[in-house]
Amino acid sequence: MTPLRSALILLLTAGLVAPSLAAQDPAPPQDPVTDESDITAVIEKGGVAQLRLAFPALVVRPGTSSGAATAIRGFERALRQDLESSGVFAIQGPEELSVLDLTGDRGQDFELYRSLTNETVLLVEGYESDERFVIEGRLYDLASQQSILGKRYRGTFDLSRRVAHTFSDEILLYFTGTRGIALTSIAFTSDRSGHKEIYLMDYDGESVRPLTDHDSISMAPAWAPTGDNIAYVSFFAGPPAIYRVDLATGAKQPIVNDGNLNSSPDFSADGTRIAFTRSLEGNTEIFVANRDGSNLTRLTRSAGIDTNPAFSPNGTKIAFTSSRAGNPHIYIMDTDGTNLQRVTFEGTYNDGAEWSPDGTKIVYATRRGRDFDIAVTDLALLDTQVLTSAVPGSHESPTWSPDGRFLAFSTTLGGKTQIRVMPATGGPARTLTGDGNNMAPDWSAYPPR
Known about the structure:
- The protein is mainly beta.
- The protein contains six helices and 32 strands.
- It folds into two domains: 3-176, 3-Layer(aba) Sandwich (Rossmann fold); 185-443, TolB, C-terminal domain (Neuraminidase).
- Strands 3, 4, 5, 6, 7 and 8 form a six-stranded mixed sheet that branches. A four-stranded antiparallel sheet has the order 11-10-9-32, with no helix packed on it.
- Strand 26 and strand 27 (383-386) form a beta hairpin.
- Helix 3 packs parallel to helix 6.
- It is elongated and about 80 Å long.
């Protein structure tokens, strides 16, 4: 058992709630695994058909200590933020629901929630047990007044945000069939310490922590798909070389550190190999090697600059940037360097391709004027959409969330660079960082279950 699991002591028990939540149930709870509820959040082209969710204030039971109450309130804030940012729900919170004259009788109250056009309601209680906080939550289908999902969680006070992320991901999984991204992380480069170092943050920009402290230039983080390692480039021992850090231990070791310039690492889909850029006699080419740096193999041979390789999700292709035809554009090749295909034809500079999780699209930075924008190209149709052309600033280094619904990228505006997140179809973006300059985000895969 890992230390995290030992500390969290998650009791993920479907349909389990305390008597105070279940006492007035208008009908017996149903097993959420076999429930045939018609309520579904439908993912459609161009967005999500939002499900209307009533989420009244969480109830803290009497007798709960101030420390546990603080953790419970932190859980509530994080859960609300997770559900709202998912884009799946149209949420009515305590303020919107304050117009209702709730009676305490479930049957009557459910009809009141429905009167505001809600389809479901999420009821949550928190209390303290053995110096740990306990969360009990249940979702109800308001039309049938049936319980459709119930969970109980128990953990130490410092884990309230992680418990909230776990619950929100379970809710997203139930309604969409796809895991939520609240337990994922983003690696990035920041100069907030006075040097460029590698940092981690939660998907929402919280819990920022450093991964390197080389007091040099460290950049271009790349997650291993297994989530246990991050490769990066650092100058701390001389010329730029590729290293990896073990996230469990913090141990760092070189992968490729010979030669004059090694950069732009990317792990293969199974995590056993890396692709990277290496300088040869003043020109850069694409190479692959095993995870430990052995079996070094050159893939490209052109007079142009070849850089920024990215493995496809199925491990059979590599996208990369090349100037072999003049301006930098995105190309795709097999992992042995054969079957070359040019993908982009518009813009004066296209760079930093990353594959969508399903392998059907690539996202990259494109320059079609003075600044860079984020563009997505459908690889079957070679149809391209520029997503940020109406957004001020220069936008680069895009990366997909593991569910393919969001993009993180860096925006430079007014001399500062920050990391932002927007829907993968475009739209309003949220800024995640603010301390120093922050760039080159790379989104993790789903954590192991």
